[in-house]
Amino acid sequence: MQLLDVVIIESSARCNLKCTMCPRLSFSPGNGDMSLDTFKKIENYLHLTYGVDLTGWGEPLLNKNLFEMIDRATAKGCWIHFLTNATLLNEDVAKHLVLSGVRSIGVSIDGATPGTYESIRIGAKLDRVINNLKRLNELKKTYNRTNPTVTLVYVMMKQNIHELSEMVWLAFELGVKNVVFKNQNVLTKPKDVTEALFLEDQKGILADAKRAVDDALYLATVLGVSVEFHPFESSGTTLCAPNPLRSLFITWDGFVSPCCNLGHRVPRMVGPEEALSDTSLFFGNIIDKPLDEIFLSENYISFRNAFTNGYPKECEGCNLVYGV
User: How crowded is residue 248: how many other Cβ atoms within 10 Å of its Cβ?
Assistant: First the structure.
């Protein structure tokens, strides 16, 4: 089995929020956390990856065994990252996080004002998240740690595109050095299509969106905040950023898939009214088959080889293969 850049492990499929754009509103990834027994099946192969990303379709901090998983992965020499909504980042959790050796976390935050943020992230309060991040910074200073570094992750949509510059300001005020502005690239219901900024029938709003991006870029330069914007128009790429040639995704219950977008039976909109009902692809389950045997199976090899001349049919309709 080859050396991988990252193994993405779904530590939890549960979530404490109901965000308006979340694919979870259109399908159920299950309602469980990865058990330690399942994680130990993966642990035997972690020497074959540089990093472990504990993100899936849920909130990692809901898994009571998360920090033991982190300890086991760092003992194998892996860097650790995960994406969180930070609503559960209380003082005890933040202290564990600072002392655990986690290299970085991403914080999902899709609005810079309470009105916008709380209309998207149903069940969350912006003030609470801000206070949690301030506490994390204080604990890093207390324990003289630079990690985990924090990146704010902002999903750009019609309803929040006007707050890009305000998000850069918020990052600066929080001492956060990095912000990623990404597209809503998993569209599972008609409302997602109307909110997306990169589809052909949305060109009428692109001028305003691009001005908002330019303003945010200028402000970020002035304030010294590093920002990354995902493009609104296709780059024509066929190998998506997750790079399924050098990574893999394992669901909370052990199924092995090339990426998180294929790791559950997620419906996918491929037009204003057209949807694919099931876009999942699994090559085995680590509970009953070794990971190297799954990775080197004929079907999995054929999937990876398909990127030589385009992309596999299972990736049809996924916006990531178009570089947005």
Answer: 23
Given a cut of 80, whether residue 269 has pLDDT beyond it is no
CA distances from 74 to 50, 103, 188, 295 (A): 10, 10, 35, 23
- Specify the length of the chain in residues: 324
Say how far apart CA 152 and CA 231 lie, in whole Å.
Answer: 17
Backbone angles phi, psi at 321, to 5 degrees: -75, -10
Q: What is the pTM of this model?
A: 0.94
Tokens of 202: 């949305």
Q: Could you read off the pLDDT of 208-255 as tens digits, one per residue? A: 899 999 999 999 999 999 999 998 887 777 778 789 999 999 999 999
Whether residue 50 is predicted with pLDDT greater than 70 in this model: the reply is yes
CB 137 within 8 A of CB 172: no
Q: What is the pLDDT of residues 193-208, one digit of tens each?
A: 788 887 655 656 888 8
Nearest to 110 by CA among 57, 66, 163: 163
- Ordered by where they begin, the domains of the chain are 1-13+29-84+234-323 (3.20.20.70), 86-183+199-224 (3.30.750)
- Rounded distance between C-alpha atoms, residue 55 and residue 59, angstroms: 8
Give the model's confidence band at 71: pLDDT under 50 very low, under 70 low, under 90 confident, else very high. Answer: very high
CB 64 within 8 A of CB 34: no
Angle at 178 between CA 88 and CA 3, to 5 degrees: 85
> How do 149-156 and 104-108 pair as beta strands?
parallel
CB atoms inside a 10 Å sphere around CB 136: 23
Q: Which helix (H) or strand (E) holds 138?
A: helix 126-142
Structure tokens given for 254:
């052990």
